Amino acid sequence: MRKTIIYSVLIGLGLILFGxxxxxxxxxxxxxNTVNVKNDSGEINIFWEKNEFSDRxxxxxxxxxxxxxxxxYWMQLDMGAPYSFLYGKxxxxxxINQPTSKFDIFIGKLEANFETIKVASYGQNIDEIEQTxxxxxxxxxxxxxxxxxxxxxxxxxxxxLFIETPNYLSNKEMNYxxxxxxxxxxxxxxxxxxxxxxxxxxxxxxxxITSKSDFEKLKKPxxxxxxxxxxxxxxxxxxxxxxxESKMTIAGKKIExxxxxxxxxxxxxxxxxxxxxxxxxxxxxxxxxxxILFLDCSxxxxxxx
Length: 305
Hints:
This protein is of the alpha+beta class and 305 residues long. The chain has helices at 2-27, 88-93, 142-146, 167-170, 212-218, 268-277, and strands spanning 35-38, 44-45, 47-49, 58-63, 73-77, 85-87, 103-107, 110-114, 118-120, 136-140, 149-153, 158-162, 175-176, 185-190, 193-199, 226-232, 235-243, 247-250, 253-256, 259-264, 282-283, 292-296, 301-304.
């Protein structure tokens, strides 16, 4: 009888763990990718949004809502977003109908057709935007990158989106990464220790975002800690940043790690993502600011030129 009870408990625990695994997998599983693309984009001049932390806090791409339109809007390219979405408040203030199903955007010569696209209750009223500011209508996520090949010249602020890998890049040595749930996980080496980080271009104001304990290890011993506030889709964050002299290597290339950051106030699902995915930090575009990067999400390979 006692053995039967023990076996029952073990079987029950196994079922709970098995069920929890699939629950967590589904929790971070992005919606079905419904975007279809036509044509290479050609060279696109990108714009870097600035903030108090960096002169390259966000990567903005010019888009049109019609191939014949002269009106240019902007969307943030965010490698940490597993799907694209629009800013409902901005669309409303522009008198643009919020899509209930299909939505098309044009990036240079590239045409992206979304069968469905999410609309977030987010954005600015057009009256609150300065005339010199770019009007940002949404975020482009990795659903678009799953359908294209991305080439970014960070030094010259030029971007290309290809349907197929160009011939001049096909013979380059490629490095593998993990694209689970349309999130980009890259292996890096910091001070000789290997770790997996998520590439989140929405975190581009910082060289490396990590845990508080890692922050203490990687910052300069005498570094002054800068405290500030941030915003994540309306959520207040407390940000702590300090100078670092640590050495980082990505795909065999040495990358200067000038600062390290930890953040308090992340929502529970971000903390859970850290635990479930095994990632040990996040890097943004700052890590590649003098480089040329090629990213092929459908084949899970990249190279730094």
